[in-house]
Design goal:
Blueprint lengths: L12 H33 L5 H28 L22 H20 L7 H24 L4 H4 L12 H19 L23 H26 L5 H32 L13 H17 L8 H24 L8 H19 L10 H35 L6 H6 L6 H7 L47 H6 L8 H6 L15 E2 L6 E3 L3 E3 L6 E3 L3 E3 L10
Antiparallel strand pairs: 1-2, 2-5, 3-4
Length: 559
């Protein structure tokens, strides 16, 4: 039996072009799923009172990116002009003919991904309006200029030196270094979240801030990996012409090998560091599922480090790249934590640190790099890649440092202390009153002094209710379950609306409440529970005042 073998060379170029456009569209849909993955990843590490704001912000920012890139960004990125930026065409979508539709989608995918990576570094602190401000500034001008430098034929990084080519195939510098430097600058200017680093005075490790969903972390990490693999395929069909099938498969294999070795290496190094018992490097101090977050972040770090030269690697070079990127991620993560920068998703370590390593690794381990062809042009290529990474850091860092500082000076960058502690999803005083039963004052600088934060946290896997700041609850009305129990209760303690309306201010002004008093003396301080109090484990109600040692309370758990 004879078989007919069809090769890419035997297919007409127009058919290959149309197939490539279809692949670009499908990959763009997966890149949109990556935006959902970034939102879920941020929700998993955040507290539940901020989830709605994160989801709404991710949803609306995408539409802003589409409009701004259509109007301004694509013209600066891909139109002709000069080696610094383009300006001749593509304004507000004009002159985008059939041959440039896939390029438009690819540029939109890059800008959307970068914007959401930056947003994840400002978790639980930035105002809603600030995201729209820096998104417009980034997509309208700043990142399209970087795209023009690195990927347009006229770009000065791509064609400035004769015989020297800037190697950044899928965005180690354009996406990861750019997003990483802006993210760490935002963290530094915003300052850490309240009480993040107010734990042990002899340790620089942060206080435990528990996220509310481990499945969100896992699902978000998987969607992020799928999205980055799809973005690699978009780059293949965008820049490689008709010779794309084998090249696309090799790129996917190299990326998977790199992120796999990076994840396992980082988890092993983190376990060894934690086993050594160094207080400032304890990985478990961040969260009780540190191994899960470390594994996901280090896998993304392997993706970021392989983006520069994944089209020019052999499998063993991708393995070496992943091994080194695991060490790079852990080093940067511990360094950022020791500087007390509140970067809960390790955006700087994953994207900035491993992105710079990817720019160095591309001209070293490529098939035409320093390992296989040690020569003068190879050394110049390494130096040129490093210079390109530094140029991106300066170009993105200086304007955004000024922008963030200006917004912080105007008071539109960080939310107020009252809004941060109540939650970004809380807008009305009525909702705030249902959550807080004790007032906040200007001296309440620690989350331990919030009084009775009564919103419930999610349930642990063991089935027990998760402890929260509820150890301070001064009063908790119980619903009567029978006539006899209701009859035995004092009239003021029964669940009636008239009682709630009678004392709308706070529990301390209510004569029927027992005011908490602190026993003087050295720490641990003691607190007197109210007249009627309920055991959080058994659910039984008790009569009388019960001293509670603050030092025996669990770590701060947020709802």
């Amino acid at each position: 039996m004879a078989y007919m073998v069809v090769t890419i060379a035997s297919v007409p170029e127009s058919v290959v072009h149309e197939i490539g456009n279809i692949v670009v569209v499908i990959c763009f849909l997966f890149v949109l799923m990556m935006q959902a993955g970034l939102a879920l990843f941020e929700c998993g590490i955040s507290r539940s009172r901020n989830i709605y704001t994160i989801l709404a912000r991710t949803y609306t920012i995408f539409f802003e990116v589409c409009i701004v890139y259509w109007a301004l960004g694509h013209a600066f990125a891909y139109s002709t002009g000069m080696d610094f930026l383009g300006y001749h065409s593509y304004w507000v979508g004009l002159d985008v003919d059939k041959g440039n539709y896939s390029t438009w989608l690819f540029g939109l995918a890059v800008c959307t991904t970068t914007t959401n990576i930056i947003a994840t570094s400002l978790v639980e602190r930035a105002t809603f309006k600030s995201f729209f401000i820096f998104t417009f500034f980034s997509v309208a001008f700043c990142q399209p200029v970087v795209i023009h430098w690195c990927w347009h034929p006229e770009g000065w990084l791509l064609n400035h030196l004769k015989g020297v080519v800037y190697k950044d195939f899928a965005g180690s510098g354009v996406i990861h270094v750019y997003a990483g430097i802006i993210g760490i600058l935002g963290c530094a200017i915003l300052q850490p979240r309240t009480s993040r680093f107010k734990g042990d005075q002899f340790s620089r490790s942060p206080k435990t801030f528990h996220g509310h969903s481990k499945p969100f972390l896992f699902l978000g990490g998987i969607l992020i990996l799928i999205g980055f693999l799809s973005l690699r395929l978009m780059a293949v069909f965008q820049y490689q012409g008709s010779k794309t099938v084998d090249k696309g498969l090799s790129i996917i294999i190299n990326t998977l090998i790199s992120c796999s070795f990076s994840s396992l290496t980082a988890c092993l190094v983190a376990a060894l560091v934690d086993y050594c018992g160094i207080a400032c490097c304890a990985m478990k101090g961040r969260h009780d599922w540190w191994q899960l977050l470390t594994g996901i972040n280090s896998a993304i770090a392997g993706v970021a480090s392989s983006a520069g030269g994944c089209n020019d690697y052999y499998s063993w070079t991708a393995c070496v790249n992943g091994l080194v990127s695991g060490f790079v991620y852990i080093t940067w993560s511990l360094l950022i934590r020791s500087c007390q920068a509140d970067d809960p998703l390790d955006v700087a370590a994953v994207h900035l640190g491993c992105g710079l390593w990817g720019l160095i690794c591309a001209p070293v381990f490529g098939t035409s790099g320093f390992i296989y062809n040690p020569g003068s042009y190879t050394l110049e290529t390494i130096a040129w890649n490093v210079a390109g990474g530094c140029s991106i850091v300066v170009w993105a860092g200086v304007p955004f440092a000024l922008l963030f500082g200006f917004m912080q000076a105007l008071g539109v960058f960080r939310v107020s202390f009252d809004r941060e502690t109540k939650g970004l999803d809380t807008y009305h005083k009525e909702i705030a009153y249902n959550i807080f039963t004790s007032p906040l004052t200007d001296t309440d600088n620690d989350l331990n002094s919030l009084g009775s934060f009564k919103r419930r946290e999610s349930v642990r896997t063991s089935g027990r209710r998760r402890p929260s700041i509820q150890w301070n609850v001064p009063f908790e009305k119980s619903e009567p379950t029978s006539f006899r129990r209701s009859y035995r209760q004092p009239s003021w303690q029964q669940s009636t609306r008239s009682f709630r309306k009678s004392f709308p201010s706070d529990w301390q002004t209510n004569p029927f409440y027992e005011k908490n008093t602190l026993v003087s003396g050295p720490p641990p301080y003691h607190e007197l529970r109210p007249y009627w109090w309920r055991d959080s484990d058994t659910g039984r109600r008790y009569h009388g005042q019960q001293p509670v040692v603050w030092g025996s309370c669990p770590d701060l758990r947020h709802a």
